[in-house]
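INFO  loader      accepted 1 record
INFO  loader      residues=133
INFO  predictor   begin
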Amino acid sequence: MQPTATVLVYSDDSNTRAQVRLATGRRPAPDVPLVEFIECATPAAVIKELDKGGIDVCVLDGEAVPMGGMGVCRQIKDEIFNCPPALVLIGRPQDAWLATWSRADAAVTLPVDPVEFAASLASLLRRRNLLSA
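INFO  predictor   done
INFO  writer      dumping C-alpha cells
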C-alpha cells in the first residue's frame, strides 16, 4: 500500500476547494505520496481537525469569510504545536507580504494555477519528510 499525505483545505467557497482538489489531482508530483483531502469551511473546523493530528499540509484561502486564511494561518502557527506547513491562497501578488506576516510557508494567487499550485504543494510535502514514511 502506498503512503498517503493528508491535506487540509480551508475555504468558505466550495469552488475554491474544488480548484485545489483539481490542481492537486491524485498527487502533485511523482515523488510525493498520494493525497487525501480534509475540507473545512470554518476556522473552528480547521482548529478541530488540527487538534486531532495527522494533517501534513494546510491550504488556507486568504479570501475566505468571515476569517481569511492569513488570519487562520497566523493563529495556527501560534497555537498548534508542530503546526504543519501552510500554503496560503492570496487574491493578488501584492498580498505576498501579508502571507509573510501570517507565517505561511508558501503562497500562490487565486484563481489557482494548477502548475504553480502543484509545485508549491509538492515542495511543502517534501519538506514535511513524508518520503521516508
